[in-house]
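ugh ok so i messed up the first submission bc i forgot one of the chains. this is the corrected input, ALL of the components this time, i swear. 1218 residues overall. if the numbers dont match what u have on ur side tell me asap before i send this to the collaborators (the ones from the other lab, u know who)
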Amino acid sequence: MEIFELTILMLDATFRVATPLILAALAGMYSERAGIVDIGLEGKMLGAAFAAAAVATVTGSAWLGLLAGIAASLALSSLHAYACVTHKGNQVVSGMAINIVVAGLTPTLGFAWFKLGGRTPALTGDERFSGITLPFADALSNVPIFGYIYAELISGHNIIVYMAAAAVPIFAYILYRTRFGLRVRAVGENPHAVDTAGISVEIMRYKALAVTGFLCGIAGSYLSTAHGAGFIRDMTAGKGYLALAALIFGKWKPVPTMFACLLFAFTDAVQVRLQGVDLPIIGVIPVQFIQALPYILTVLLLAGFVGKANPPKAIGEPYIKEK
Amino acid sequence: MSETKSKFGAPSKVPAWVNLGLIPLINLLAAFLISGIVILIVGDNPLKALEVLIYGAFGYPEAIGYTLYYTTNFIFTGLAVAIAFHCGLFNIGAEGQAFIGGLGVGIAALYFDFLPMWAVIPLAVMSGAIFGAGWAYVPAYLQAKRGSHIVITTIMFNFIAFSVMNYLLVEVMINPDAGGSPETREFAEHIWLAHAPDFTGMADSPLNFSFIFALLLSGAFYYFLWHTRWGYEIRVVGQNETAAKYAGISPSKNIILAMVISGGLAGFVAVNELLGVHHRVLMDFTGGYGFVGIAVALMGRNHPVGIFMAALLFGAIYQGGTELSFEMTSINKEMVIVIQGLIILFSGALENMFRPKIENLFKKRQSLSQTEA
Amino acid sequence: MTTNAPALELRRVNKWFGAVHANKDISLSVGRGTIHGIIGENGAGKSTLMSIVYGFYQADEGEIFVNGNPCHIDNPQASIKAGIGMVHQHFMLVDTFTVLENIILGVEGGNRLAGGIRKAREELQRLEREYTLEVDVDALVGDLPVGIRQRVEILKALYRGAEILILDEPTGVLTPQEADHLFRILNTLRDQGKTVILITHKLREIMAITDTVSVMRRGEMVAHVPTRDTDREKLAELMVGRSVLLRVEKEEAKPGAELMTIEDLNFIDADGVSRLKNIGITLKAGEILGIAGVSGNGQSELLEVLGGVIPPTSGSIKYKGEELVGSSKFNARNLRKIGLGHVPEDRHKAGLILSFSANENTALGYHDLPMFNKGTTLDRAQMLSTCEAYIEKFDVRPPDATLKASGFSGGNQQKLVLAREMEQDPDVLLVGQPTRGVDIGAIEFIHKQLIHMRDQGKAILVVSVEIDEVMSLADRIAVMFDGKIVGELAAKDATEQKLGLMMAGISDQEQAAPIPDNEALV
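and heres the new structure output, hopefully the right one now
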């Protein structure tokens, strides 16, 4: 039974860590399926995390914070679109620039506004999203196994965790079963076909990047107002890049990407558990190895040692009409 | 890098000073303008800040020493990113390559310090380059032979480098007397690189022999790329892989060569930082120099002269920016990162924002003067 | 709306690209229910004009009328609304989508796809019946052969309610037989009252199918004539502006020793597709061997293998009696050193570095020859003087060896490549598409140079998708289809019809035999 409980605990941690990854990876999926490389997921999340925490602490409302986080992230993704779509700039450079600007700007503004060395004040009460106990969770908690799973694993998360869970089917549906999704996919594979069909490539890419901004905004807000309690500098700590890795690992498809996020989050939970534990035969596994594991796996995938990843055909190329 | 596609073959006939001087300057001004607005928002005086920044960077000999010391790092990473660009590759991994280069420098300096100075310093320099090159080799190999996109693999390798170094410094190479901080013991004193001589007034700054080394490398870089057949091959592959194949130039060989040189150049950051300044291996000595190298290469148009100018600019911003956080009440040292990011934004991602307008302006003037003549 | 108004009318349309006046004062009138040809050389401005009609570019001056009504067309959407459909030279299809998804793209009929797809399926069945355009609508476009993809493009336009259908060089990728099938489809369309505009540079097509023809030359419209009142020679003269020799003047070839013998050559690409199947050909000194075929039937791979760009999967290539396959010499660089020049099919993609100066391009592939090096240093002065010599000999304009390759016109770029490969005095020269996208003056020059080289006792392999070019240049002609050499014949025995059938995979012998099922041909 102890192993069972431990597993539930680790899965619980996995969900919490996976939430921002899933949201950010879905965000990246819309950008990249539309043909725009987005290594700026990190910056968008960080910007959203700061905006959400700052507004939540000033207004006292986590929801207003979330709105502010989304707005900040949308602004950054519009900037990315402005550089890459309108001015056909290099997409990698643009993403990089956004990451660096935000990494500098958030502590700069935080320092100036809150005088806490770049942090925002700790959020309490309604300033952050707290856990929701699902109906009957308490009543069912004594039912063995399923009741326990329901109460301990399914129930008790904050609203954004459930949002992330819902986001996977919703945004997969939009991508594969709607007009908007069809056009997003088309514009990432052959923008010329889209253009000659009388659809503006630029507007489509702006729209796709708006979805990216929206989802990244939620992901970032989660970090500072749900998972954490306030903004700390560089609090994304590479999660944007990890989400990007998950997106590639999931071959730019929603459900495999979600599983990649869960896998990466699970390695994180494992790493916390295994810190300093002397395993039989293997001995102590260095935490650093487990930390690096998602990146190593992604490299192995890209190298074609675990399956093959086919990126959207037009990715990274600015659309130039005459061809 | 987006290549300029002029369908009807009309070459751009804009004067070189516009292309290499005016346009970068305008991009830079735009970046400074936005930075100024940020400073206004946080409640300080941007002009005062600029003054402090310039004084802090160039106002007195020690400041210049610091500026040139930072410049040294940016020359290394700028050249590193640039040679990859010349081969059509985007090396985001200079940061990780520099970090691993530190391991090479450290191993030579820690375990071969029984050798005399004339042997151990070159050994450490070589070892730094080889380790940096080795770290670049894997993504390069995967790109060349298996088509794995190098932007993504080098990003991943940055994280893996961090984990490797973190492990080694925490578990293996740690100096038990350092109070638990993850760093090695100090190198033997004869391995320390010479600092600027006293008469320059920069002796107290971290400026060291690496700066001269960086300048020499810049010259070698120019010679190699434009005046040897190997450089020619790299540039051919970077511009047109198919044409390279038809000319019997192996893209994969050159991709690997360019990246290995790139990683080696990035590894020299460790020479400046570890042999020149810290005299031990420690975490995070790379300080984002690898990323800024991208901006340096972009601004410097991948040419060593341009790279030197851009490196000097970023060196000045680094040094002056540090001063800024001491002098100004509401500005902290992250303001420097904002300015850097904005420069990358305007001179890199938004390079096409002002360029066509300015070029048109000059083309029009030219055609006018032609009709007059 | 007046019923007698032309389906499409252009009045004084002008378009500039920078300093280039691509369309000068173009006026055009296309009658309803006709097939109207627009013919002109590459670069004459045909595609630009049609891109303006399709709303891809905007005219700087001029008016467009559809059915007599003035139309402001500033994007493809407006053009589609006006009832204009376009089949582009390069298909505008998404390979990873099904035919259905491709067809509804842009006219999905609602936010959710399911309904639109159901409706489209029914409508397409009707269109397919009406115009005999059978296509499996659930197939992935990437899996379809080019001929079928073209039908998808036509269906796409019809589904959008096109009354005027513009086809831009539609037969470039088709066999003559496939092209004939296309023409039957176009005839059906006309019979159903649609208007068809056919853009081409091939006289054969104009004569075969159009009712009226307009001729463009250097951005200008130089003639409108009913097709039955003209002939190929007249049209050719109008296109070029002077009478042209469609044939190259040359002496009878005097074939000498076999310089290159290729036997049983096979190449299987990375996707496992067999691109070359048991190829056997010989190149003789003093002779030009022409390879004809519809593009995409293995000619490119043959050139790449022979040029040492890619290694063959199996087979033998003997050069002056020495086996090259498996030898360390077998790569593009070393082959050049032992006397095998290679002018690639696509000068932009493979022949030049457009961003390099002309003189740097002069050394491409020869950059490690002693003549261009002094020790470890590249001899840039030598590169410059060599290039200047080439420029003079090949009359390249402008005569500036420091100009970027992108600054030269297509013909002059081609001359730069030819000069580089011919002036190193190879014994065997491989030439892919010697005059693609080259103006008439340069074509003559290039053909003369090749003949001259032949007469000096060199072996030349010319691969071209232009039947005319192969027939006029080559002494022997081999035809490729589906990776195989279908047959080989002397140029004097070749007719367009014979070659056409061979290009569809029917060998000379099979042509002689009675054909049981006529449908097999179409």
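quick check: The mean pLDDT of chain B is 89. that seems consistent at least. The CA atoms of residues 157 and 163 of chain B lie 10 Å apart.
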